[in-house]
Amino acid sequence: MLNQKTVRDIFKGEFIGKEVYFLESTESTNEKAIEIGKKREDSEGIVVVADSQTKGKGRLGREWISPPGVNLYFSVILKPDIPPAEAPLITLAAAVAVASVLRTWKGVPADIKWPNDIMIKGKKVGGILTEMKTRGKEIDLVVVGVGLNVNMLLDDLPEDIRAATTTLEIEKGVPSDRVGLLGGILAGLDNAYKNLLNGNKRALINGWLSLNCTIGNRVTVRDHDRTITGVAENIGQNGELIIKLESGETEIINAGDVTVLKN
Ligand code: BTN
């Protein structure tokens, strides 16, 4: 059961989990976390968890469907002393934390589609939305929001996204404990965040590479009104996607939607 009591002492890491706020329902845990982060100087590591969201936000302005009683929706406030250009690495770290827990604790073949879609056998099971506020050239705060489809069945989703979506319950055939999963993900994120702050970007990127399903494949990337097709060659130092176009040129992509093409 996910509630005020069960989340209170869920995980206390070096950075993450010093306080956990639980809300039955909120518009968006990212919004709530930004609000707290702006108000409180000492908010690094605070986690905001909700049982449901009424205006859950997805990447690229999309909605994140967030029904009650079934899934995980949470956001972590961070105040890293790193250049804003490195902030995308925090998103990669969160994706690694989620995919690793799904693999090791749940035994499902989870992987990561660039930049941070959590997939199981080509279907999306979770996503991450990182939002950053800067002051001058410095990061004021970063909010990492994670949505994971745990015990939801597909009837809760609009028909047009059902075919591309899955949930842990569907993959495993049994419900999972949301509290345990949340604790595991926070522990993984705490660990990855330490690597980032210690300047150990390589460990983080290697972790991401070992779990990704994008690099080495032909892909199409849609970014606003632009569509690019090529081979996803690698990720850059700050998590950007490096694509080799058919013309032989290289493109560096910072945001977009990737479709992995079957050869
Ligand atoms: C994506 O589009 O893949 C990102 C989805 C991120 C959803 C999570 S749910 C918790 C947090 N609060 C939000 O409003 N969005 C993120």
Cα shape: globular
Provide the succession of SSEs. Answer: HEHEEHEEEEHHHHEEEEE
Main sheet attributes: strand count, strand direction, barrel closure: 7 strands, mixed
* Small molecules bound in the structure, each named once: biotin
Q: Terminal Cα separation, in Å?
A: 44 Å
Mean pLDDT: 95
Strand order of the largest sheet: 1-2-3-7-6-5-4
Based on DSSP secondary structure assignment, what is the total number of beta strands? Answer: 12
Unreliable stretches (pLDDT < 50, length at least 5) are none
What Rg is obtained from the alpha carbons, in whole angstroms? 18 Å
Structure description:
There is one protein chain. The chain has 263 residues and is of the alpha+beta class. Helix content is 29%, strand content 31%. It has 7 helices and 12 strands. It has helices spanning 4-8, 29-39, 88-106, 159-162, 168-172, 178-197, 201-211; strands at 20-26, 47-53, 72-78, 110-113, 117-120, 123-135, 138-148, 218-223, 226-235, 241-245, 250-253, 257-260. The strands form 2 sheets. Strands 1-2-3-7-6-5-4 form a 7-stranded mixed sheet, sandwiched between helices. Strands 11-10-9-8-12 form a 5-stranded antiparallel sheet, with no helix packed on it. Helix 3 (88-106) crosses helix 6 and helix 3 crosses helix 7 (201-211). The mean pLDDT is 95. The chain binds biotin. Biotin binds at residues 28-30, 53, 56-59, 62, 64, 73-75, 117, 127-129, 145-147.
Layout of helices and strands, plus pairs?
Layout: H1 4-8, E1 20-26, H2 29-39, E2 47-53, E3 72-78, H3 88-106, E4 110-113, E5 117-120, E6 123-135, E7 138-148, H4 159-162, H5 168-172, H6 178-197, H7 201-211, E8 218-223, E9 226-235, E10 241-245, E11 250-253, E12 257-260
Parallel strand pairs: 1-2
Antiparallel strand pairs: 2-3, 3-7, 4-5, 5-6, 6-7, 8-9, 8-12, 9-10, 10-11
Helix pairs in contact: 3-6, 3-7
The structure holds biotin.
